[in-house]
Design brief:
It is found in: Cell membrane; Cytoplasm, Perinuclear region; Nucleus. By secondary structure, this protein is mainly alpha-helical. Helix content is 64%, strand content 2%. It has a two-stranded antiparallel sheet with strand order 1-2.
């Protein structure tokens, strides 16, 4: 029994000695490979890195070599190696930032937005103050005349009517501050040059856009009324002036005869709104030939009188010409 215990002790001492040698050998390998023990914990593995695990040490060396290879720069040029360039190219192919898919903003849109941002209500108010009356917060006849001079327009110019339309002016020879400021904001301008440019654009557009012209035509009747006394019928002399003005660029063939008829008949003292509105339809209907006029249609009575007068004038002219031929 003592012999067995002695053998066991000897065998145990031998195992301990052998184990210590193995540990020393592993420690020597780790030291030779310069693997810091701190770094081992920085690379989590599926299998923990043990000092006596040869596979784990080999895995660590492979990771370290791969990282060294990927981050290596050419010592002469400082440029990335082929391996690193390849890695970067692959990364670029796989990772595409979302903003590359967004369309670029056109220059026209960006410039349009910047122009809108430059519109200043303060500048519009300052412009209004240049022309407003000294006693009333409104641009009156004298101020409008000065404004027209700066716009290089005559006060009876068609473009002045267009400006009043765009300002939604409630009556002639008067622009309130609210009308002026809001109107120029809608036009997106705050300067004399800007107003000139906009008026040129709108005037050209009215020659092509019949719906816009209808809106201007209807506004003209309201614009001619004296709202201060509650006027609802346009005086004939004012109506004649406004008809000539509103048809400046597209005069109907019948307009001249119609206006002469009104001027020769002073008993016609005013033009109601329905007569003003229907005259535009009347011009389209008859053109330059009154023979197509049908008095059974629901036309204003003033149109019936006008057509009858013109037919009488025509018959008289025919009779006179016949008599001259007989002579």
């Amino acid at each position: 029994m003592g012999h067995c215990l002695s053998c066991f002790k000897n065998q145990t001492n031998a195992d301990v000695t052998m184990s210590q040698r193995k540990n020393d050998d592993i420690t020597e390998i780790v030291t030779t490979s310069q693997v810091p023990t701190v770094m081992i914990s920085d690379y989590p593995q599926e299998e923990p890195l043990l000092h006596n695990n040869e596979n784990s040490l080999n895995s660590y060396r492979n990771i370290q070599n791969a990282n060294t290879l990927n981050s290596y720069n050419d010592p002469c040029t400082g440029e990335l190696t082929v391996s690193q360039k390849s890695h970067n190219i692959n990364s670029e192919k796989t990772i595409k930032p979302f903003y590359q898919k967004l369309p670029s903003i056109p220059r026209t849109m960006s410039s349009f937005s910047s122009n809108e941002l430059r519109i200043s209500e303060t500048k519009i108010n300052q412009l209004f103050d240049l022309y407003k009356d000294s006693l009333e917060d409104a641009i009156l006849a004298e101020g409008i005349e000065n404004l027209c001079n700066d716009l290089q327009l005559n006060p009876d110019d068609f473009k002045v009517l267009v400006l009043a339309w765009k300002l939604n002016a409630s009556q002639m020879c008067r622009f309130t501050r609210q009308e002026f400021v809001q109107g120029l904001k809608n036009l997106k301008t705050d300067s004399i040059k800007g107003i000139q440019h906009k008026l040129n654009e709108i005037t050209s557009d009215l020659k092509r856009d019949s719906e816009n012209f209808k809106d201007l035509y209807r506004f003209t009747f309201k614009f001619g009324l004296d709202v201060s006394i509650g006027q609802r019928i346009l005086p004939s002399d004012i109506a004649v002036l406004l008809w000539r003005l509103v048809f400046t660029n597209n005069e109907p063939p019948i307009l001249d005869k119609w206006l002469k008829y009104l001027e020769k008949n002073p008993h016609i003292r005013g033009i109601p709104k329905d007569t003003w509105y229907m005259f535009l339809n009347f011009c389209d209907y008859v053109g330059d030939d009154l023979s197509s006029y049908d008095d059974t249609e629901a036309w204003p009575s003033l149109f019936d009188d006008f057509v009858e007068y013109e037919n009488d004038q025509m018959n008289q002219n025919v009779t006179k010409s016949d008599m001259k031929m007989q002579d």
